[in-house]
């Protein structure tokens, strides 16, 4: 296989991953999707899907329900042969509860003090209330006249906790705001059920995809501790996700991610190349999230999920009819670990004033986005 991949590179100057990325991104003619693994139906798995039993004792049924999840014993969890540490959970959300998380992604998390792409070229007062400035236009029926895009439609990413710096590809101690407790609660319960108790949600990147967006080939390696898993949650439109190897030459596996699907990259799969070449309308059986609100009254009471008002849902449902939101939650630091710059004061300097004795930056890593199509963030 490696040999074949090398010859492909030699011939075309392109690695196998990039070829596959372009294959699925292509519009005309549309790509054949028969090789795309669908965990929800077991289709096109080539026998690679392995059902997994997660630990039902790690999270009580009540604690699961409080964040909108089915009891762990009912989750449909899978591994993928050849990808140890990769866990796919096919929509573990209770009916009606995705609406809450979608509303958080669109209305709550883009608010200050969190950081978003619009802050890069707009003043804080102009990005103060993205929701309020967009909701009215999104609620009204699309007019014949082409309206300027609302702020919500121009939202591409939001960062939480330690805010990822896209230029330096690092996190730092001096760019931190409190991580949303509800999202931490959701994340810690899912990771605990997957065998990672004590997960600390310290940073998240929320990506907002329109129907023609994609996310380039990259490895998430900016976090300082790679022994902690990376958790990914998707809502709205479906996507094709490509999971590769540790080398660009390794041919990736293509899989669908539907609304509510959860993915964990841990252990040997934590640092694999991956990408999202395409957003797709959900197949019928996955489109139920669109009318989910009708049953949010059925949600358990003592939970962190406040009901979503009809008014808010009108905006959310309109938005996700053509968009996808993905949250990746990360633990940045290992237990007792701190950022190199924090340590500098605690360490001595040599006679030239250089800091000595702190951890080498070698494995602090970079969040590499190496695909030349979309660099950095979700590209439309
Ligand atoms: C990321 C990422 C994947 C997705 O943000 O690092 O890989 O499904 N997202 O959007
Ligand atoms: Mn990633």
Explain this structure.
The protein is an alpha+beta fold and 380 residues long. Helices cover 21% and strands 19% of the residues. It contains nine helices and 14 strands. The strands form two sheets. A nine-stranded antiparallel beta sheet has the order 1-2-3-11-8-13-6-5-4, covered by helices on one side. A five-stranded antiparallel beta sheet has the order 10-9-12-7-14, with helices on one face. The relative contact order is 0.19. Manganese (II) ion binds next to strand 7. It comes from Fundulus heteroclitus. Its cofactor is Fe(2+). Monomer. Interacts with DNAJB6.
Short summary of the structure?
With about 375 residues, the chain is of the alpha+beta class. The chain has helices spanning about 1-10, 15-25, 60-65, 100-110, 130-140, 150-155, 180-195, 310-320, 340-345, and strands spanning about 50, 75-80, 85-90, 115, 155-160, 205-210, 215-220, 230-235, 240-245, 255, 260-265, 275-280, 325-330, 365-370. Helix 4 (about 100-110) crosses helix 8.
Strand order of the largest sheet: 1-2-3-11-8-13-6-5-4
CATH architecture: Sandwich
Q: Which shape, going by the Cα principal axes?
A: globular
CATH homologous superfamily label: Alpha-ketoglutarate-dependent dioxygenase AlkB-like
Number of domains: 1
Which percent range fits the helix content?
10-25%
Total beta strand runs: 14
Fraction in beta strands:
15-25%
* Termini gap: 33 Å
Segments where pLDDT lies below 50 for 5+ residues?
A: 1-8, 344-376
Assembly classification: single chain
Instruction: Give me the Rg, rounded.
Output: 21 Å
Structural category: alpha+beta
Region (Disordered): 336-380
Cofactor: Fe(2+)
Keywords: Dioxygenase, DNA damage, DNA repair, Iron, Lyase, Metal-binding, Multifunctional enzyme, Nucleus, Oxidoreductase, RNA repair, Transcription, Transcription regulation, Translation regulation
GO cellular component, one term: nucleus
């Amino acid at each position: 296989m490696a040999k074949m991949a090398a010859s492909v590179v030699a011939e075309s100057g392109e690695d196998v991953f990039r070829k596959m990325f372009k294959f699925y991104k292509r519009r005309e003619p549309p790509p054949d999707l028969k090789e795309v693994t669908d965990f929800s139906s077991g289709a096109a798995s080539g026998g690679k899907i392995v059902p997994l039993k997660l630990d039902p004792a790690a999270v009580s049924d009540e604690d699961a329900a409080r964040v909108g999840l089915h009891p762990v014993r009912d989750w449909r969890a899978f591994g993928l042969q050849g990808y140890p540490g990769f866990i796919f959970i096919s929509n573990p959300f209770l009916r009606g509860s995705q609406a809450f998380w979608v509303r958080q992604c669109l209305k709550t998390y883009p608010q200050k003090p969190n950081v978003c792409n619009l802050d890069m070229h707009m003043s804080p007062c102009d990005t103060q209330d993205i929701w309020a400035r967009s909701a009215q236009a999104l609620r009204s029926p699309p007019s014949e006249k082409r309206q300027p895009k609302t702020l919500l439609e121009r939202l591409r990413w939001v960062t939480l906790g330690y805010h990822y710096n896209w230029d330096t590809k690092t996190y730092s101690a001096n760019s931190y705001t409190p991580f949303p407790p509800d999202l931490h609660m959701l994340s810690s319960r899912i990771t605990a059920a997957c065998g990672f108790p004590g997960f600390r949600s310290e940073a998240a990147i929320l990506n907002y995809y329109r129907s023609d967006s994609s996310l380039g080939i990259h490895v998430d390696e900016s976090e300082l501790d790679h022994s902690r898993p990376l958790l990914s949650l998707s809502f709205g439109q479906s996507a094709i996700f490509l999971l590769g190897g540790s080398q660009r030459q390794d041919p990736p596996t293509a899989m669908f991610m539907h609304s509510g699907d959860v993915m964990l990259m841990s252990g040997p799969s934590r640092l694999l190349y991956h990408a999202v070449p395409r957003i797709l309308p959900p197949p019928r059986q996955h489109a139920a999230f669109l009318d989910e609100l009708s049953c949010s009254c059925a949600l358990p009471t003592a939970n962190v999920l406040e009901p979503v008002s009809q008014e808010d849902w009108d905006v959310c449902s309109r938005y996700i009819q053509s968009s996808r939101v993905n949250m990746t939650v990360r633990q940045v630091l290992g237990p007792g670990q701190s950022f190199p710059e924090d340590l500098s004061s605690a360490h001595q300097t040599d006679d030239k004033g250089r800091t000595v004795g702190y951890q080498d930056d070698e494995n602090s890593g970079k969040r590499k986005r190496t695909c030349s199509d979309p660099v950095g963030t979700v590209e439309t």
